[in-house]
Write a structure and sequence with these properties.
Layout: E1 2-11, E2 19-29, E3 34-39, H1 45-53, E4 60-65, E5 68-69, H2 75-78, E6 82-85, H3 99-107, H4 121-132, H5 151-163, E7 169-173, H6 181-198, E8 202-205, H7 209-214, E9 218-223, E10 226-232, H8 233-237, H9 241-252, H10 259-263
Parallel strand pairs: 3-8, 3-9, 6-7, 7-8
Antiparallel strand pairs: 1-2, 1-4, 4-5, 9-10
Helix pairs in contact: 3-5, 5-6
Length: 265
């Protein structure tokens, strides 16, 4: 479902601020893979997700989604088959629009716009049924402005919007990092349910090593713009946080340095 071939990305090339963010990165995801991504600060995790989403072009290499070469496609064209949830709950939704209006936009992603009514009666039932499963009472607030929702409510709604059309690939960029622990756990549980039930292919960047171990069927560790560890199956199931720290030291030749991730052990 996703094939990344030797992609390179350098920011501020030729200046004193030059940063090689991705260095010949390659990755292959089969349909239905749920891959968690960990790594220290500046490892290239979010840069990789931005490269897949087309936020900016890569310098070298190739990106294919479901066999289609998207390397040269602009971001708005890739949006038709990608779902994405950001770290900031303020991203991914239109704050001044109602809940049902946001869901209507998500439902029409990749479709041609018409002059028909924006929201049909049968759609409202669909939205209400979908919101019920979130367990946040949003099904009774269809016309409420999204900007009035809490961070957790907004992130849960964004997740619902991102998966509404069953994207070819779901990108989750530390989407629970800005939430309090209880709300983060709820959103993470919803994520796992939605990805598993729909058989989605997903990449989830996380700073929580325990979550990375216990969620999904595969884990990759990044450092200095490259993948230094890739584990799946039974080996992943038996991993511990200490195992990950040892693997990082072995592969990178240094100690893991990320206070936020160390505190989430």
């Amino acid at each position: 479902m996703l094939e990344i071939k030797q992609i390179e990305k350098t920011f501020n090339a030729g200046t004193v601020n030059e940063k090689k963010a991705l260095k010949g990165l390659s990755l292959h995801l089969k349909e239905g893979d749920f891959v968690t991504v960990i790594g220290g600060n500046g490892a290239g995790k979010s840069t990789m997700l931005n490269a897949i989403a087309g936020v900016w072009p890569v310098d070298e290499g190739q990106i294919l989604i479901d066999g289609k070469d998207v390397t040269k496609l602009p971001e708005y064209k890739r949006a038709a088959f990608l779902g994405r949830v950001f770290q900031d709950p303020m991203n991914g939704t239109a704050a001044t629009m109602g809940i049902e209006e946001n869901l209507a936009l998500a439902l029409r992603r990749g479709s041609h716009r018409t002059l028909k009514p924006g929201i049909m009666k049968n759609e409202r039932k669909l939205y209400r049924d979908l919101l019920v499963r979130l367990g946040l009472g949003l099904e009774e607030r269809l016309t409420s402005k999204v900007g009035l929702l809490s961070g957790g409510q907004r992130q849960a709604l964004t997740l619902l919007m991102a998966t509404l059309k069953k994207p070819k690939l779901l990108l989750l960029d530390e989407h629970t990092a800005a939430l309090d622990p209880q709300t983060a756990r709820k959103v993470l549980e919803l994520t796992n349910e939605m990805v598993t039930e729909q058989g989605l292919t997903a990449l989830m960047v996380t700073h929580n090593m325990n979550d990375a171990i216990h969620i999904g069927n595969r884990l990759i560790m990044m450092n200095d713009g490259q993948i230094i560890y890739d584990v799946s199956g039974e080996e992943k199931k038996h991993l511990t946080v200490d195992d990950l720290l040892k693997k990082f030291a072995e592969a990178s030749g240094g100690q893991f340095a990320n206070d936020r991730m160390m505190l989430s052990k």
